[in-house]
Design goal:
- The protein has about 210 residues and is mainly alpha-helical.
- It has 2 domains: about 70 residues, Helix Hairpins (Orthogonal Bundle), CATH 1.10.287.990; about 110 residues, minor pseudopilin epsh fold (3-Layer(bab) Sandwich), CATH 3.55.40.
- Helix 1 runs antiparallel to helix 3 and helix 4 crosses helix 5.
- The longest helix is centred in the N-terminal third of the chain and has 26 residues.
- The structure holds manganese (III) ion.
- Manganese (III) ion binds next to helix 1.
Length: about 210
């Protein structure tokens, strides 16, 4: 049984960056539906006890193409949203910048934190249609930027890298508040991205 994370903050705690109705709908309906559909698909395919990262990495082992597609879409939706919501914090509580090894790696790979944000923002804004932009790491601690359509991610795409930060650019993530202005949402989102949480995920991937 795959479990959707409970939000570690109130649904209004990310305002004014993300409004309460968007958080309620996004977590309470969209993310919940992915989770419910993943659990149904996983049970049907007999993979309900697998680790989600292993499941997404090994979709080629699923023999029925319809099952594989359902697991890719709903497993990705479950996983990507768990990551997204778990890296956000109210603006007053979040850590503004990474420290330690992650900070060093960002500077080495992208030049600076600001340059990194510009690059991932451009990927997020440039993703045609629905999808995500990701910062990922490998076990050696190297960092990778990418964007994916739909609910795909670097794991289901077979890169072997693990996402540590995810920017949701499906319209349901921003449309109620930002309407068609995806770039404004992506820019404002950094006000609630908590580097303390991103660092903790990075340390898990690298350890
Ligand atoms: Mn979403």
């Amino acid at each position: 049984m795959f479990k959707q994370i409970e939000l570690p903050y109130g649904t209004n705690a990310l305002e004014p960056v993300i409004d309460q109705l968007t958080v309620e709908t996004h977590h309470g309906k969209h993310h919940k539906t992915y989770t419910d559909n993943l659990n149904a698909a996983a049970e049907k395919a007999g993979v309900q006890d697998q680790d989600i990262e292993a499941l997404l990495a090994d979709l080629g082992n699923i023999t029925d193409p319809a099952d594989a597609k359902a697991l890719r879409n709903n497993g990705g939706g479950f996983y990507n949203h768990n990551l997204y919501f778990s890296t956000l914090s109210p603006e007053s509580e979040k850590k503004d910048a990474p420290t330690g090894k992650l900070a060093e790696k960002i500077d080495a790979a992208f030049g600076s934190l600001d340059a990194f944000k510009e690059k991932i923002n451009a990927l997020a804004v440039g993703q045609f249609g629905s999808g995500w932009a990701f910062l990922s790491a490998n076990q050696a601690g190297d960092l990778f930027l990418s964007a994916s359509p739909n609910q795909d991610n670097p794991i289901s795409e077979g890169t072997g890298n693990i996402p540590i930060l995810a920017i949701d650019v499906w319209e349901h993530a921003y449309y109620l508040q930002y309407k068609n202005l995806r770039a404004s949402y992506v820019k404002e989102l950094w006000r609630v991205i908590d580097w303390k949480k991103v660092e903790a995920i990075y340390e898990r991937v690298v350890a």
